[in-house]
Design goal:
By secondary structure, this protein is an alpha/beta fold. The chain is built from eight helices and seven strands. The chain has a seven-stranded parallel beta sheet, with helices on both faces. The protein binds 1,4-dihydronicotinamide adenine dinucleotide. The site of 1,4-dihydronicotinamide adenine dinucleotide has 28 residues, from helix 1 and helix 6.
Length: 261
């Protein structure tokens, strides 16, 4: 099934889209015909937007924003409606990962991880949902993680934040049905800069080398490889599309079989 063109005339907003998974999701929406808004805390979002626009011929608005700020969220939603007249799809992708043993976790790691990964999702949903409810159409896809479905070593704040994203998804889905759907995806491991940084951080604590760590994570993948950005982006577009019109409150694994519940 090709989704190309399915989103023509619709507006999608992707947070944390300067690089990595967010960039891939943004590109997939553009290829499917959507108008696009990308926001990120990193200035590189401007260059990414220009590249995506010239690669796909689509309309892209780039905005600097920190998702942990409610004021930034409101500003981004207003700018989106001003530029494109509607907001049909929100993808809460921005996220960070800090690595530490539970008992050594600094306050700042806990506070910032929850602020970005969990409060950030809350801020953008709270700012965007009134527009979707008023339009009587819309969809939200939150990027959670397999780490939200079970605890993990050296990543307590990250796992807690992603479990919170799954919970926020379910609560919002109940309140905004039947016109608006809210889902999340739970990727396993994707070779992005976030994951590259994690190998180094884990290595610094456990003393294992990067290849050992990688091999250990790979061994947990029944389908035999890490996920590509495109593997996850396709599932995000599926959840946002009419093909998933009877799916809401879902936390869909894209983890190569690593997690099955
Ligand atoms: P990445 O680090 O490559 O990209 C994350 C983007 O979010 C960056 O452009 C960064 O500048 C932006 N960002 C960070 N803090 C922000 C803030 N406060 N406000 C706005 N933007 C902010 O990471 P990656 O791998 O692309 O991750 C994307 C999402 O996927 C995250 O939510 C992550 O937790 C999730 N995920 C990643 C997995 C992986 O293995 N890479 C696995 C499962 C989930």
């Amino acid at each position: 099934m090709s989704l190309e063109g399915d989103f023509a005339g619709q507006t999608a907003l992707v947070t944390g889209a300067a690089r990595g998974l967010g960039r891939g999701i943004a590109r997939a929406f553009l290829e499917a015909g959507a108008n696009l808004v990308v926001c990120d805390i990193n200035d590189a979002v401007e260059a990414t937007a220009a590249e995506l626009g010239s690669e796909t011929g689509g309309e892209v608005l780039a905005l600097r924003a920190d998702v942990s700020s409610a004021a930034d969220a409101a500003r981004v939603i207003d700018a989106t409606k001003e530029r494109f007249g509607s907001l049909d799809h929100l993808v809460n992708n921005a996220g960070i990962a800090r690595v530490a043993r539970f008992v050594d976790t600094p306050d700042e790691d806990w506070d910032r991880t929850i602020a970005v990964n969990l409060t950030g999702v809350f801020n953008f949903m709270r700012a965007a949902l009134p527009t979707m409810i008023a339009q009587r159409r819309g969809s939200v896809v939150n990027i959670a993680s397999q780490a939200g479905k079970r605890g993990g070593e050296l990543a307590a704040p990250y796992c807690a934040s992603k479990a919170g994203v799954i919970s926020l998804t379910q609560s919002a889905a109940l309140e905004v049905a039947p016109d608006v759907r809210v889902n999340c995806v739970c990727p396993g491991f994707i070779n992005t800069e976030l994951q590259e940084d994690e190998y180094d951080a884990v290595s610094a604590i456990t003393g294992e080398d990067r290849e050992q760590i990688k091999a250990g994570w790979m061994a947990a993948m029944p389908l035999g490889r890490f996920q590509e950005v495109e593997d996850v982006a396709k599932v995000v577009l599926f959840l946002a599309s009419d093909a998933a019109g009877q799916t809401t409150g879902e936390a869909l694994n894209v983890s190569g079989g690593m997690v099955m519940d």
